[in-house]
Design a protein that fits this description.
With 197 residues, this protein is an all-alpha fold. Helix content is 72%, strand content 0%. It is globular. It catalyses: an acyl phosphate + sn-glycerol 3-phosphate = a 1-acyl-sn-glycero-3-phosphate + phosphate.
Length: 197
């Protein structure tokens, strides 16, 4: 029952549709009808600018990370904590409130990985640095997101984190790659949008 409770709590925390709410109540727009139709920070940035994109990304990281942190205050089982994090990202990607049409889970996954061990955030931090470097080099947020998350997942093993954290991190990274499948097609076709310098 403990695992079910924290899985459900993680899902609810992650399912708060930050980008949708920001666009709706600040801009008066439905983010799903704009740009890529995604509710994540990148699409919010297209509609509302870089500051709002950063704000949404930070909140999306925190909602996943704090769900794991809250669970860790009551339990220490890495498997349950890993499950909590996975469900938080699933909540972001498939929120009940928006007909299960959510984001790609990039920021939320970084938050989850960063909080799996509050005293060992380096996989997420280094993964974030890699994300930034790839984004600045290629100008493709999608490429940076996939590379950054896969790197962060690999780093959980390099830093000796419990196996459930590494398994969950790789699952979430691969889930994000799958969620980017339309971007991958556009990259192959040379039609993927680049970020402005």
């Amino acid at each position: 029952m403990t695992a079910v409770f924290w899985a459900f709590a993680g899902y609810l925390a992650g399912s708060c549709p930050t980008g949708f709410l920001v666009a709706k109540y600040i801009k008066g727009a439905d983010i799903r009808a704009f740009g890529s139709g995604n509710i994540g920070a990148t699409n919010v940035g297209r509609l509302m600018g870089k500051r709002w994109a950063v704000a949404v990304a930070v909140f999306d990281m925190l909602k996943g990370g704090l769900a794991v942190l809250a669970a860790s205050c009551f339990i220490s089982d890495p498997t349950i904590l890993a499950l909590t994090g996975v469900c938080a990202v699933l909540g972001h990607n498939f929120p009940l409130w928006l007909g299960f049409r959510g984001g790609k889970g990039v920021a939320t996954t970084f938050g989850v990985i960063g909080f799996y061990n509050f005293f060992m955030p380096w996989p997420a931090i280094i993964g974030g640095i890699i994300w930034y470097a790839v984004m600045k080099t290629t100008k493709y947020v999608s490429v940076a997101s996939m590379v950054g998350l896969l790197a962060a997942a690999g780093l959980t093993a390099c830093f000796g984190m419990p196996r459930p954290y590494t398994a969950a991190s790789f699952f979430l990274a691969l889930l994000s790659v799958w969620r980017h499948r339309a971007n991958i097609v556009r990259l192959k076709n040379g039609t993927e949008s680049k970020v402005k310098s």
